[in-house]
From TrEMBL:
The keyword Nucleus does not apply. It is found in: Mitochondrion membrane. This is Uncharacterized protein. Keywords: Membrane, Mitochondrion, Transmembrane, Transmembrane helix, Transport.
Length: 106
């Protein structure tokens, strides 16, 4: 999921940076560093939240039937059907685990 992550990351970073520069009262170098750091953290967090569930689905589809990661064999390769299956099997734990991952690693 490198391309979707990068697309969300750069789009969010640029939007957040622009918005933070508009409201930032400081024009010094220290203020610029904080704006870049805050915009970068927000961009990474949003990109991970958006793409991690898709990455779970991709991995499940790739591993199905191989007994690699405990994946079931799916009757279809439809992303929507696989998401339904994952939610039935694991509940809403997989989006929550993505958020926990972010909290630990940020």
């Amino acid at each position: 999921m490198n391309a979707p992550f990068t697309a969300v990351h750069f789009t969010t970073y640029e939007a957040a940076k622009r918005a933070l520069f508009e409201i930032s009262p400081e024009k010094s170098d220290d203020g610029k560093v904080m704006v870049h750091a805050t915009a970068g953290a927000a961009a990474v967090a949003l990109a991970a939240v958006v793409t991690s569930p898709l990455d779970v689905v991709k991995t499940r589809l790739q591993c199905q039937g191989q007994g690699v990661c405990g994946c079931d064999r799916y009757a279809t390769s439809s992303i929507g059907k696989v998401i339904e299956s994952v939610v039935k099997r694991d509940g809403y734990a997989f989006p929550c685990s993505c958020c926990c991952y972010l909290l630990v690693h940020l």
